[in-house]
Amino acid sequence: MENLVEVKYAQTGESTKTNIYGMREMQERVYAYRASKYLLIKAPPASGKSRALMFVALDKMQNQGIKKVIVAVPERSIGSSFKKTELKKFGFFADWMPEDRYNLCTRGSDNSQGKIKTFQEFMDSDAKILICTHATLRFAYETIEETKFNDCLLAIDEFHHVSADLDSSKLGELLHSIMTKSNAHVVAMTGSYFRGDGVAVMRPEDEMKFDRVTYNYYEQLNGYTYLKSLGIGYHFYQGRYLSALPEILDTDKKTIIHIPSVNSLASTKDKYEEVDRIIDIIGELDHQDPETNILFVKRHSDGKILKIADLVEDKEGREKVVEYLRHIEKVDDLDILIALGMAKEGFDWPFCEQALTIGYRGSLTEIVQIIGRCTRDSENKTHAQFTNLIAHPDASDDQVTTAVNNMLKAITCSLLMEQVLAPKFNFKVRLEDDNTENQKGEIKIRGFKQPSTEKVKRIIEADLNDLKAKILQDQNVLKALPGNVDPVVVNKVLIPKIIQTTYPDLTDEEVEEVRQYVIADSAIKTGSIEDTGDIRFIRMASRFVNIDELSIDLIDSINPFQKAFEVLSKTLDKRTFRLIQECVDATRLQMTEEVAVSLWPKIKEFVKATGSEPDKNSMDPHERELADALLYIRNKKRSQQ
User: Which domains does the chain possess?
Assistant: First the structure.
């Protein structure tokens, strides 16, 4: 199957260049906000967030009265990102030198009395830096008064693990308490800050206190030296996924295989057997290194020995593998890594070329993190590939509705990633007498509403992808994606409701300004801009539009997310695609007055074009939708009379 998303990059080298202090572009941007009491850093994997924190933390200790720095990471393996680092030799004024004693990301339970006691000791000592897991921070916090955090910097890595929901994250409540009961500074770092995954990350009143530094995926990847392109695609299997693996697993590429959770429909329920079968598909086990637990497998096709790391194995055996992975330096040190819940966020294997994920992943955050494993810049690759192997819907299967829903949700993940990976545009209104050329990255739209308030500007600057995540996860929008709901309903009814729910303090005018920006940004990022002589065209859905004639009314008439389903309709057989449409159609949007009114102009156009009213028994889902709207309007009118 062809990729649903294919992005090409300019290889400018800008994102890896450093200034006179040894800072990359992203780190320099963060350092400009070093005086912020509360700072949120949103940047992709491999952009250098950990070192950005070092620069900021050292300045706070040197110049801002901060006496201690506490760095909290979600799992022990990520703690190595904050190890001792010499920064003076690159031009900075100090080195990052945490004491080994206060690195609590070591073997052993995160809630052990020993680690908690060491944490307490650190708070009373003259030591400057402590590194621990989120879990150790939570347990230690329960034994320490909030005022102990005065004059401290609390840095939370992989911040999307925090939640404002008291039942799901004590870390969220801890953060709120420290912010309200101490003068502590906070730096939060994340590569995938999607509130659309569930409950809010922070309470709204806390979130408003943070200054934000955003460095997007496109800036990062476009500024690489070696990587030219990234593909995101799907492959569908019937029966068991192991039967489809030989077709899509390219053992010439450095690969991470994420097998499904044992609770997933894709799982065989025996994770160890699955690993054995994958190895059998690749080749024949030659031997296992007793020191590292790395498997040496002789490939079936040519007898080449491949080095395979098994992170599915539990306990002590896995610890040896993790230790080996920490010290990989050469491209030949590893060929394939098989994992279940590991090797996602914070895991660094720059040579990885493809991430093969088996089974549906419901979390956008998880997808972003997995893709980030193969998008590091490395001289051994020019293309990075993410492939999701998911179950093919089968009409004879009792789980057909679940399979269809999983397929649609998986595709929405790729649609969102397409938005995240695309370059940033600046939208402005095109006035009637405006014939000037657009500046680089600027697109003018007739009838477009410019952001008029700081609230709207803040949402557009910092929250646009978060808002798109929420939109794409909405059940009604999901039903509309295959094209069986009129684009006007999606753009002018469903999306404004989601915006209003997400930001209840916005006025109707502000909601409309955000709505227009969301749909314009979405439609153009899923389209393509083409030059034809002196005229530039934008391809949106199946239309080619002269860029100088672009209007908000035209954008409102286009489903910005339909391209993925155009690809599906060409790839899947007609029977399967029809099955998808039928499953979605069975849970059609409930007709409301708002939807019916929005469709009334389309009903009149249909009658004028065909000479008849839309038929509710038509094979065309759009015609059935118009028929439902017409029936609703007539019933409403009858009841009023």
Answer: 14-217 (3.40.50.300), 248-381 (3.40.50), 420-589 (no CATH)
Mean pLDDT of the chain: 85
Question: In sequence order, what are the residues at sequence separation of 6 or more whose Cβ sits closer than 8 angstroms to the Cβ of residue 625?
Answer: 484, 485, 486, 588, 599
Continuous H helices in 84-150:
113-124, 134-141
CA–CA gap between residue 103 and residue 105 (Å, rounded): 6
Q: What is the per-residue DSSP string for 462-518?
A: HSHHHHHHHHHH-HHHHHHTTTTS-HHHIIIIIHHHHHHHH-TT--HHHHHHHHHHH
**Do 73 and 134 touch, CB atoms closer than 8 A?**
yes
Please count the other Cβ atoms lying within 10 Å of the Cβ belonging to residue 545: 19
- pLDDT tens by residue, 122-168: 999 999 999 999 999 999 999 999 999 999 999 999 887 665 444 44
Token output for 294: 């790395």
Among 57, 56, 29, CA closest to 43? 29
CA 265 to chain centre: 23
- Other beta carbons within 10 angstroms of residue 596's beta carbon come to 23
Q: What is the CA radius of gyration of the chain?
A: 26
Q: Give the CA-trace dihedral at 525, 531, 534, 537, to 10 degrees.
A: -40
Give the whole-angstrom CA distance, residue 378 versus residue 353. 9
pLDDT digit string, tens, across residues 337-376: 999 988 776 678 999 999 999 988 877 777 878 888 899 8
Q: What is the pTM of this model?
A: 0.78
Query: How far, in Å, CA of 100 to CA of 130, rounded?
Result: 9
Residue 157: beta bridge partners? none
Report the candidate in 127, 136, 143, 149 with the shortest Cα–Cα distance to residue 37.
149
Burial class (CB in 10 A: 0-12, 13-18, 19+), 218: middle
pLDDT of res. 566:
66
